[in-house]
Amino acid sequence: MNQTVLIVDDEPEQCRLIEALLEAPRPEVVTANSAADARAAIRDHRVDVATIDKILPDGDGLVLLAEVKAHHPDAEVLIMTAYPTTESVTEALRRGATDYVTKPVDVIDMRIKIKNALATASLRRQLAATLEQLAAGLDSAVVTTLTSGVADSINSPLACIVAGVEQLRLRHAELAAAAPEQTTTLAEVTDEIERAALRIEGVVREVAVDLRKLYADWVRQRPT
Q1: What's the pLDDT band for 10 if we cut at 50, 70, 90?
Q2: What whole-number distance in Å separates Cα of residue 107 and Cα of residue 55?
Q3: How far apart are CA 43 and CA 150, in angstroms?
Q4: What Å distances lie between residue 42 and 67, 79, 158, 166, 167, CA to CA?
Q5: pTM value?
Q6: Residue 212, C-beta contacts closer than 8 angstroms, at least 6 positions apart
Q7: Closest by Cα among 193, 125, 199, 136 to 161
Q8: Is pLDDT above 50 for 127?
Q9: What Cα–Cα distance (Å) separates residue 143 from each residue in 87, 123, 129, 137, 151?
Q10: Residue 88 and residue 100: Cα distance in Å, rounded?
Q11: How far apart are alpha carbons 211 and 147 in whole angstroms?
Q12: I want to staple 32 with a disulfide (CB 3.0 to 4.6 A). Which of 38, 63, 115, 152 is the partner?
């Protein structure tokens, strides 16, 4: 099933810019230029990743963030603003935002963030589906083996690292062509790779907990 990206911004050109950054396999895109349109989209569509402008003419992006998470708990949400403050960043992350994006958008940085968000959302849905399929017939050996296997496989987030290295090369080439003498480092891209790895690590921990709970529930409910 294709993933869906919801883009919420009152500037249509900003929506088009973000849509242009999406890479193959291309997800379905739903755009909304107001909080009202965004609420309708949240109700009517599955949302895997959302990019939401914090300040909208008819609403607050952080309120929409809460609505996305209420309807689509596994969705990854990026909050965007041209006027970031420490307080607003902290509040967005506290409410469940995946990351905070400052306008004007850095296209390379934004491409990385969206790609990683889609990968994380896909991983969450795949694991949720696997958990449902395993709801019957689990035993402690299966739980232990599966939990260990998931952790070993995903705690080395090769896909995110490879994607990050690819973007590092692109960034380096652009900087070298534009200003060979420039001393700008690639620290921000490296930081994004690290954040992606930490997010995946967090997903693994959540899955391990879910597996153990699922097994405990099954043990309680199985016929004696």
Answers
A1: very high
A2: 20
A3: 32
A4: 8, 16, 31, 33, 31
A5: 0.65
A6: 143, 147
A7: 193
A8: yes
A9: 41, 19, 16, 11, 12
A10: 9
A11: 7
A12: 38
**Residue 132: strand, helix, or coil:** helix
Q: Kindly list the domain boundaries of the chain, sorted by start residue.
A: 4-105, 108-221
Longest dimension (CA), the chain: 74
Instruction: Calculate what percentage of the chain has a pLDDT beyond 90.
Output: 37
Backbone angle region of 90, left / alpha / beta, with phi > 0 → left and psi within -120 to 50 → alpha: alpha
Tell me if residue 5 falls in helix, strand or coil.
strand
For 41-200, where are the E strands, in sequence order? 49-53, 55-56, 59-60, 76-81, 99-102
Q: Is the dihedral of CA 173, 178, 182, 186 positive or negative?
A: negative
Residue 91 Cα distances to 62, 100, 143, 224, angstroms: 8, 10, 36, 48
Q: What is the CATH topology of the domain spanning 4-105?
A: Rossmann fold (3.40.50)
Report helix angle 86-94 to 61-71, nearest 10: 10
